[in-house]
Amino acid sequence: MSKRYAILPGDGIGVDVTREAIKVLQAAVETTGTRVELQHYPHGADHYLATGETMSDATTEELKTFDAVYMGALGDPRVPDMAHARDILLGTRFKLDLFINLRPVRCFADRLCPLKEFGAKDIDFVVFRENTEGLYVGIGGNFKKGTPDEIAVQEQINTRKGVERIVRAAFDYARQHGRHRVTMSDKSNALRFGHDLWLRVFHEVAEEYSDVESRHLYVDALCMELVRDPSQFDVIVTCNLFGDIITDLGAQLQGGMGVAASGNIRPGSTSMFEPVHGSAPPLAGKDKANPFAAILTAAMMLEHTGLPEPAARIEGAVLESLEANECTEELGGALGTAATGDAVVRRLGG
Ligand code: IPM
Ligand code: MN
């Protein structure tokens, strides 16, 4: 078997942690007989500042020919409006129609759990964030910009098809992974058109999955419940913006942004994998960033592309490294980024 992955290390610590993720990925597949071809792309702030290119349509088309795309964090103070990050990250999500943003929230060790009276066993759920619609579509504009009479319009798009496919994906996932409950979160008490559509579609689809429990929570209540008792959640499905916010909250519940992985998925097509964290410019190049999120994201990519065995070994190795305190300062260890990657490699086994 052979696999081809496109690698975009991105900006800032994205570059530092992607290096470790690739190191671990290569070590994990080495013993499996699978040949892995990695093609690096320079797209990020440096490339944008040097060439003016964010991401061309031709490059986007090329990405579609890979088994998957791995993307590091994007963001650089020299590009204050994040123009390149929006084009590269959101552009890839939209143009490849990666409608599922799958963000697992799993706490790997009791000491990483920030809630008193709860531990690792209580925090294990998956967020299905809608990834191609909502407030992220970029429809809108400014009128009389910069004047006291300015009007800013930012449209939120919800389509029947778009809502239905993400809700179905959440229920299918629950079924396939032995998860018992799907919670849909919206703000239909205030957003009476777009989110009323979400509520109606959710109830309709839920009827087809009578073997899975369905629950609805307004997003404000969901945030409260996530902190009050996270053990009640299994699968959460929600719109693009709420998914963005909920998964930062989720990342803290599992031990911080340094351990949160994600996949931007379109079943049956090229999908893209990226850690949830940002590019943290002040930490860039200092061998300080925690590479676990990036490494776990590489494992997600392997699993998604038909290599569950090396993916499971990577997860196991991260868990062991964490237990042995072979990790960066952020998680209580004393290792740098590269040494943490090496520690994971050592624990991969054969
Ligand atoms: C994320 C990020 C992005 C998002 C930003 C960088 C546009 O916060 O992947 O969660 O909002 O989706
Ligand atoms: Mn985010």
- Inertia-based shape: globular
What radius of gyration results from the CA coordinates? 20 Å
Q: Uncertain regions: pLDDT < 50 for 5+ in a row?
A: none
Counting helices, strands and paired strands, the structural category is alpha/beta
Instruction: Enumerate the strands of the largest sheet in spatial order, edge to edge or round the barrel.
Output: 2-1-3-12-11-4-5-10-8-9
Bound molecules: 3-isopropylmalic acid, manganese (II) ion
Q: How many β-strands, per DSSP?
A: 12
**CATH T-level topology of the largest domain:** Isopropylmalate Dehydrogenase
CATH architecture of the largest domain: 3-Layer(aba) Sandwich
Order of helices and strands: EHEHHEHEEEEHEHEHEHEEHHH
Number of helices: 11
Task: State the end-to-end distance.
Answer: 18 Å
